[in-house]
Specification:
Layout lengths: L3 H22 L3 H37 L4 H15 L15
Length: 99
C-alpha cells in the first residue's frame, strides 16, 4: 500500500507533465521548465516515500521473526546487567521506554 509521499509524488509528476506539455504547446519555456522541475520533484518524493515504505516493511518482517517474548527477555537481561553494576534507582540506559 502506498504512503502519502508516494501518492503526493505521483500527483506532482502528473501535474508537472501537464504543465510541461502545456508549455510546449503554447511555446512558454518558463511553464515548460516549471513543469519539468515539478515532475522531477514528484519523482523524488515518490521514490523517497517508496524507500521509506520498503524500509518499514523490512523492519516489520524482521520483527515478526523475533520470538514472541523477545522484549521481555531483553528487558530482563538488561535489568540483570545493570543491577550487576550496582546501579541504584533507575537504569543507566533509557532504552526501556521503547518496550
Amino acid at each position: 500500500m502506498w504512503n502519502k509521499d508516494e501518492i503526493k509524488g505521483k500527483g506532482k509528476q502528473i501535474s508537472g507533465a501537464i504543465k510541461d506539455k502545456a508549455g510546449e504547446l503554447i511555446k512558454d519555456p518558463k511553464l515548460e521548465a516549471k513543469g519539468e522541475a515539478e515532475r522531477i520533484a514528484g519523482n523524488l518524493q515518490e521514490k523517497s516515500g517508496k524507500a521509506r515504505r520498503k524500509t518499514g516493511e523490512a523492519v516489520q518482517k524482521s520483527a515478526e521473526r523475533l520470538p514472541a517474548n523477545f522484549s521481555t527477555r531483553f528487558l530482563n537481561a538488561h535489568r540483570n546487567f545493570y543491577s550487576g553494576l550496582g546501579e541504584t534507582g533507575g537504569s543507566i540506559c533509557s532504552c526501556e521506554k521503547y518496550f
